[in-house]
Structure to design on (145 residues):
């Protein structure tokens, strides 16, 4: 029986994704997200930021390649995977990453010029900014799950 290996994480994409194709023709997409944790210590609020590498395969990789632009909020459901290797000096190395099984994209806000606005709309200009969800990319990500 397999042990439970499941993770759900929310954060913002740190850099634009990299989509590659394996020699066998499968698509793989790699991107990183930053997740913030806020806590109170000695009557002051502190922020802790953690960075996670994420990997998606197949149709999910293609959808992430289109939708996971730098700064966009995402929710990733998947599993942890540990890669192990020996470097050129003979030292054993390892790295843990998230293998995505499902990715949800948070809405993107566009300004009057139909350009993606990387900032959240404020109460003052909320009438000027329209919220538009890229349903095409989201539906592709849902199909890949």
């Amino acid at each position: 029986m397999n042990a439970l290996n499941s993770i759900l994480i929310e954060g913002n994409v740190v850099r634009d994704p990299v989509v590659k194709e394996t020699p066998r023709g499968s698509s793989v997409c790699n991107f990183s997200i930053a997740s913030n944790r806020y806590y109170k210590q000695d009557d002051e609020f502190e922020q802790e930021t953690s960075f996670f590498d994420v990997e998606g395969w197949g149709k999910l990789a293609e959808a992430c390649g289109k939708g996971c632009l730098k700064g966009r909020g995402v929710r990733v459901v998947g599993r942890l995977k540990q890669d192990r290797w020996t470097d050129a000096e003979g030292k054993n190395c390892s790295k843990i990453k998230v293998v995505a099984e499902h990715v949800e994209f948070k809405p993107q806000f566009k300004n009057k010029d139909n350009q993606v606005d990387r900032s959240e709309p404020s109460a003052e200009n909320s009438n000027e900014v329209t919220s538009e969800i890229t349903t095409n990319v989201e539906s592709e990500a849902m199909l890949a799950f």
